[in-house]
Amino acid sequence: MIIKKNGPLKGNLSVPGDKSISHRAVMLGALAKGKTEIDNFLMGEDCLSTISCFRKMGIHIEQDIRNRKVIVFGEGLDGLKALTEILDVGNSGTTIRLLSGILCGQNFSSVITGDTSIQKRPMGRILTPLQQMEADIESVNNNNCAPLRINGPKNQRLKGIHYKSPIASAQVKSCVLLAGLYADGETHVTEPAVSRNHTEIMLSYFGGDVKVTGSTVCVKPRPKLSGKKINVPGDISSAAFLMAAALIVPNSEILIENVGINPTRDGILKVCSMMGADIKLLNIKKDGGEPAADILVRHSSLRGTEIGGDLIPTLIDEIPIIAILACFADGKTVIKDAQELRVKESDRIEAMVKNLSAMGADVEATEDGMIINGGKPLRGAVIDPKFDHRIAMSFAVAGLMADGETEILNPECVNISFPGFFEKVSGTVNKM
Length: 432
Ligand SMILES: O=C(O)C1=C[C@@H](OP(=O)(O)O)[C@@H](O)[C@H](O)C1
Ligand SMILES: C=C(OP(=O)(O)O)C(=O)O
What we know:
Bound molecules: shikimate-3-phosphate, phosphoenolpyruvate
Low-confidence stretches: none
Radius of gyration: 21 Å
CATH superfamily of the largest domain: Enolpyruvate transferase domain
């Protein structure tokens, strides 16, 4: 994919449904009794992997790709059918970690794995709490990575525990909470900082008993979940790329409609405001416990900032695009406490620093982040996103303001979370 200097971005647009919420709607829809109708479902490859895994466990799921609608015919907590094949999550960390929690409570055995990136990502972080719950789960190659082999619980029920997670990870938290549905008593998870809370919100909405106190979540086992209607808001993590494009390309003004602004996900809005961005939230509403708004973004002169601490989990997937913003800001931007980036679909610190350096940016990697001195003009380069959707989209945005041509290798990886990304950008750029 070749990107040329272009712009401004103009007009009203929407982005695909939230990936985290789409995954959870299928999972909880399957464990609930009755029909769950999901509107604005993200038809990205990761969420399609979740659908395919549940179909393999006998759940009937109807999909209307054109209208972004999914209907899950839930069979209740004990309604999943024994598997005859291996579960393949593709590239999706959320699918493997959350589904493993569910599988540990089933009375059948399973093997779950994914693509080469998934087989390198750390699974020890879920094996530890699940084994404390007396789940029978192991890494097949004994390397704390997928494939994972799971048998039914060693005793009839899993053991409810209080897990103090060493990392703020919604995937770890959600994995333990979902296993907790099959436990013999309450399950508590405490995290060092609050990570995205979509599982807690949706589980309550389906009829689960969930209590949140500070950074601790408690679930009661064996809830009676019933099918619901879910309207998935636009994904703020996808909107972030268009927001950034509008902020850096002169004379841009766009309105991104119906984007999720859950406070555990809105760190990108805070950072944009710290950088001096002209962004307004309009038409704020709430549906199924999840807040959403239209986001009005105008081109702005940006200044560098410092990002770390409890803010990081609220913008973890937006750090690659924040690094691009930092290149167009005056002064220094420091990103720290983001060592989690090293174990995503790619090592995102390395991928950003390597490719930004190729474009002529002043950027330096640190163990847990990066330091960027903004204001140096970027030039086009060949970008290897390492099959990582967020890296590919970040550099497509940078390419709109770089001199010469920017070539993105393996651009199809954007289909993981944002099918139609390139068409959306070129449609918005050409609405001048
Ligand atoms: O729970 C989720 O839906 C997600 C949690 C985050 O991962 P971690 O839990 O590993 O931080 C995030 O990076 C991922 O894109 C989606
Ligand atoms: C890290 C991501 O997803 P996952 O962990 O589900 O693969 C992401 O979408 O940026």
